[in-house]
């Protein structure tokens, strides 16, 4: 193949770009042509594929690009805007809509449910003592799911059933859903109140305004963009818990591998690890977990990705590729065992890694290890958490499943207070899910999705109540929110 010729025009462009010239026109591109000055003052017509091009200057050393200011179209307004459509986000949106507010939900993936669906989690922890939306979802997952879902009261579920159930509930409640969209910025006013967010998608860069916002992104992306303080991991290196990739499998008779299925007995993990090791396999997660979902479909978690920051996209990409390879290698190794494993195959690997830990946003209350040890009782409790302190091994040292050193202070069932869901540094912003305010040890317990749903429901009700009563979330107490009438 011959190299393309460098025309004089092209050579001139490259020379001026390296010198810091403007890289693109500040105009719309319409039907493949530059818009006129009059056309450029209007928002692009996304139905026709129009775009508003970015302009900027590239530094001489090509290490920085300065983007020029531009007007961003406001694409929509709602009373409550929820960022993140995982377990916390769907509950926040549903609760706010049922409380009478107009609600928009923005989600990065192509489905609702987050780690439940795009992450193929297939197990809901710390949900049995929850009422409200969590109990409703468990009932629907059981009713619409398999015999396994019914036997486990919906806590072991089919991700495809979950996708459909969540979409139906939110659409029926009148929530405006926007998938395939990433939150990339936030705007506060002179009173330090959050008033708008910025998103990027195939529709370009857009702005969205609302009266109240709820950060359910998991990693606290919205709160960080708004300027909130936060904590990450533990120690000076901000070490976080490992990530995991889950997968769906098929080709195995459940009766033939019953002893290795987690719901059979707590010893199943150990037996599966022994089976793998005897086959010469060395899974990075030392407690591989196999769950039977329905018919011949299973989920498996057998992977740990250590030392990966949730905010380093290149590192997350490398971990995703590495994790997917490990899952396939382990399944291939099991297949070589023959017998009941001879036809085992991967149906799908998760769209995204399961991230256990991101930012912990500073709130108006911080849940601590002492609160867990003492079994905190709080007058503004939105739910009670019962899940154990669960810090997955922070490195490969010792081949551990769980780092036991963080369990020494103990845990009693404890309350999650409403003020832990209110951002301390920015007004008009609520938090739900694993990004709420807490320390490293407390987070390892409350981070699981049964708690996330309860927090999301509380945050959604609080957001709607604050709008309908014309006050800010921190000006409400939980009793006032609980007694506010719902429109449902």
Structural write-up:
- The protein is built from 13 helices and 20 strands.
- The protein has helices at 8-18, 37-40, 87-98, 132-144, 147-151, 159-172, 221-226, 268-278, 313-335, 369-374, 440-446, 449-468, 478-482, and strands at 28-30, 33-34, 51-52, 56-58, 65-67, 74-83, 103-106, 176-178, 182-188, 194-201, 204-215, 230-232, 246-250, 289-294, 297-301, 345-349, 359-361, 381-385, 414-417, 429-431.
- A hairpin with a 6-residue loop joins strand 4 (56-58) and strand 5.
- The longest helix has 23 residues, at 313-335.
- It starts with 7 loop residues before the first helix and ends in a 6-residue tail after the last helix.
- 46% of the residues are buried.
